[in-house]
Amino acid sequence: MGRLIVVSNRVATPTETKGSAGGLAVGVFGALKDTGGVWFGWSGDVVSETVANAGPTLEQDGAVTFATVGLTRKDYDQYYRGFSNATLWPVFHYRNDLARYERDEYAGYRRVNAWLAHKLVKLLQPDDIIWAHDYHLLPFAEALRAEGVTNRIGFFLHIPFPSPQILINIPPHEELVKSLCCYDLIGFQTDTDQLAFHDYIERHARGTVKPGGNVEAFGRKLRTGVYRIGVFPDEIAEQAKRYESRQHVMDLKQSLEGRKLIMSVDRLDYSKGLVERFRAFEQLLERSPEWRGNVTLVQIAPPTRADVSTYQHIRQDLEYEAGRINGRYSGLDYTPIRYLNQRYDRWKLMSLFRESQIGFVTPLHDGMNLVAKEYVAAQNPDDPGVLVLSMFAGAAAELTGSLIVNPHDSVGMCEALQRALSMPVDERQRRYEMNMAALRKNDLGVWRDTYLRDLRAVPLMKAAPNGAHGTGAGASRKTQDGAPDDAPAAS
Ligand code: ADQ
Q1: Strand 403-405 to strand 386-390: parallel, antiparallel, or no bridges (unpaired)?
Q2: Which parts of this chain are annotated as the region Disordered (predicted)?
Q3: C-alpha closest to that of 361 among 426, 420, 319, 288
């Protein structure tokens, strides 16, 4: 079996893949270890042009090579901070109101994709399969094809794919979807995402969609599929139990003084519905005086993308809301919302989940939401907490034992909290068992192995006449900044 080449915007470090990172890194690393291969992408460093062009830096861990490159300031601003996170991220999360479009940022996005492709080509072998991840890399396969690469190339979109009416707000939407069609297999988190893509293909690209997700568009044939990302639930359960008596859990327990605990953990992102969540919790305190002083919401939300301006606003909004609600309902010995702006080790989070009575996960839009799955997996089967989950998380389709809410309905969310806080143990157990069965049926290994099986089954493209893997004509046509000059136009 050929090697696996994983490409993602950020590459986990070899240490992170051994457990401290999210499940994705662990899952992908598992596949890399099986076949041997390369994990290629940005190191997370902003560097000089000389250093960037000298890369990639290679680090070996058994049969796996971690290959990373630095980005120049301009690349970072245009590709990462600009088009990826100020255009694609908001639009793909249905927040056109927060999106901007700048031609030079889009040009930078394409330039960096072409440059990354050029760097990767030198590491490729003929029977490798390539698996690219997420919205930073929509044009990556097209850039590899321009370098003469004929290997199988797959893509998995971790975030929602928006309906065409939303997507067409991005001026070069057609060029982006055309680029996406250079992949051999596109994986989505949910049926809704896949349908939205098919809808675009049929109505805007005049392509065809056949049963089995077979798509023909822009002169290309490709496949699409739904692959719901999961977790390893039994490993999480074991981890949560193992650490349940550690000091941090004891400290939290003691400070709660018998109060019920609602736990929320997210990256600080406007897609996660944090302000709406705080307001729903406020509704609970307002409508149910018996819970005042008797329930605490712990919100853990470390800042991300802090140099993108919309992320500064969400931080301010949230601090304001937490302060306002706490001002209204705090007592000398009671703070209703504990809002923590920091990252926690994974094992700590899992043991805190186990200690809580409610997991409150209410994104406005989310590809899957692994926190919801982790929360369920971390529960004590004898006395499980209840998951209150947004209908707009991909996970809602599988976790049917949860209380499903609409995050725009603060009273509805408040009622779900009331119900969860007083739910009898036999109902909690029944709901937990349903959710746990879904997690076990479709764990992270199933996601990864099914996707890779389907990618390996894609018919291979005919090899280029010179048998090139980037050593042929495509790779030699270079502009000054290192991007192939046959990369698509900037806008
Ligand atoms: P994210 O938007 O990052 O992922 P999510 O799926 O919830 O969202 O994954 C977050 C991961 O980070 C979880 O494993 C969680 O435990 C961890 N995490 C969150 N807050 C943390 C904290 N304070 N400290 C430490 N760890 C923390 C994107 C998409 C999702 C999709 C995933 C995977 O937006 O929709 O589910 O990719 O495909």
Answers
A1: parallel
A2: 463-491
A3: 420
Q: Which residues carry out catalysis? A: 158, 366
Torsion of CA 275, 277, 281, 287, to 10 degrees: 90
3 state SS of 149: coil
Q: Where are the domains of the chain?
A: 4-229+444-456, 233-440
β-pairing, 64-71 with 208-210?
A: unpaired
Lining ligand 1 with CB less than 6 A are: 22-24, 158-159, 229, 265-267, 300, 302, 343-344, 349, 366-371, 374
What pLDDT is stored for residue 480 in this prediction?
A: 31
Q: What is the pLDDT of residues 103-135, one digit of tens each?
A: 999 999 999 999 999 999 999 999 999 999 999
Rounded average pLDDT over 407-423: 98
Averaged pLDDT, 368-394: 98
Q: Whose CA is nearest to atom 3 of ligand 1?
A: 267
Would the pLDDT of 469 be above 60? no
CA distances from 74 to 6, 77, 126, 132, 411 (A): 25, 5, 33, 23, 46
Q: 3-class DSSP state for residue 490?
A: coil
pLDDT recorded at residue 478: 35
Q: Looking at domain 4-229+444-456, what is its CATH homologous superfamily?
A: Glycogen Phosphorylase B; (3.40.50.2000)
| Equal CATH topology for 4-229+444-456 and 233-440 | yes
For domain 233-440, which architecture applies? Answer: 3-Layer(aba) Sandwich (3.40)
Alpha-carbon separation of residue 191 from 184, 300, 383 (angstroms): 19, 30, 33
Contacting residues for 194 by C-beta, under 8 A, at least 6 apart:
161, 188, 213, 224, 225, 226
